[in-house]
Structure formats: structure tokens, C-alpha cells
Amino acid sequence: MKAFLSVLYRFEDILSKILDLFITVCIIVVFLGVFTVTIARYVFGFSIMGVAEILLILFVLANAIGSSLLIRSGGNISISYFVDLFPDNIRRVLHIVGLLATALMNFVFAHQSIAWVRATMSYRSMVTNIPMWVSEIGIPIGCSLAVLFAIIAVIKLIFDPDTYYKGLGQTENVT
Predict the structure, then answer these.
(1) What backbone torsions phi and psi does residue 113 show, to the nearest 5 degrees?
(2) How far apart are CA 109 and CA 112, in angstroms?
(3) φ, ψ (nearest 5 deg) of residue 131
């Protein structure tokens, strides 16, 4: 089991670093794009057609993927006040239930959004002529990654809770 957990932790770490880099690049491109468009419009008096659409696509991708990464760090939406009132073992079970609910909800969203992407596959953007699926694919990708990170967190909570809670910055012993 230790070998499996070691491989799982390594996979999670590498995937997280790749996704962090992707998000960083997206945000930098969005910042530079907004800066360029603003300078072009207010200093030189012209607009760059299609840039706003491309920046919106990058922003949606960065947010969808970034939201999935929050599960890894425990930053997903939760109300921990009541959960923290319980003993450690019950708290761990409640965290597992919450993560499984998060995984299920994101699985449903991913499934439904894939159907939506398929339905709009032949449409193209009016301004840039980019296929619409390019702007829509971020939702199923983000939701699928959220499912993956939630399942990894559940595995950690079941087999190595100390590592899970240390990753969240908590030092309590939950075994």
C-alpha cells in the first residue's frame, strides 16, 4: 500500500505543478492582453478585434482548473465550524462524505457539460471563428479534475489521514 500511495502522491504533485503552470500562463496572458487592449484603445484609439473573446476563454479555463486544484489544498467550499465540533474519527468520516459528494456533483457536471459541448461542436465564434467547444471544454476538464482530486483526497483520508491533514496545514492527529 505504501508503494501505491507514494506513486499516487507523486502523480498528484506532478499534475498539480503542471496545472499551476498552465493557470499561471493563462493569467499572465490575460493580464498582458487586457493591458495591450487598454493601451491600444485609449492611447492609440483603435481596438484589437477578437482579443476579448480569447481572454475570456483563457480566464474560464484558468478558473475551472483552479477550482479543481482547491480541492487538493482543502480550499473548496466547506463550513468547518460544525465539523470541527466532532471527534477526530467522525470528522474524518464527514470529510470523506463531503469529498465524495463533491466528486459526485462534479461528475454530474462533467457528464452534462460534455453533452453540451457535443451539442455545440459545429458552432463557431462569430468574431474569431474559433470552434465553440474550445471555450466550453474548460468546464468538463475542470469538473473531471475536481473528481480526480476529490478521489485522491478520499484515498489519503482513508489510508494516510496524517498526510492529508498536514497537506491542509493542520497538525492534529486524526488516526
Answers:
(1) -75, -30
(2) 5
(3) -60, 140
Q: What's the pLDDT tens digit per position in 29-82?
A: 999 999 999 999 999 998 888 898 899 999 999 999 998 988 887 766 666 777
CA-based nearest residue to 165, from 95, 99, 97: 95
Burial 4-15, CB ≥16 within 10 A → b, else e? eeeebbeebeeb
Q: What confidence tens digit (pLDDT) does each residue in 67-110 have?
A: 898 888 776 666 677 777 888 889 889 889 989 999 999 999 99
Chain centroid to Cα 35, Å, comes to 26
Q: Measured between alpha carbons, how far is 135 from 61 in angstroms, rounded to an integer?
A: 8
Point out which residues pair with 131 in neighbouring strands: 124
- Could you tell me if 78 and 170 are in contact, meaning their C-beta atoms sit under 8 angstroms apart? no
Global pTM reads: 0.84
Mention every residue, 6+ apart, whose C-beta is less than 8 A from residue 16: 69, 72
Which residues make Cβ contacts (< 8 Å) with residue 34, sequence separation at least 6? 55
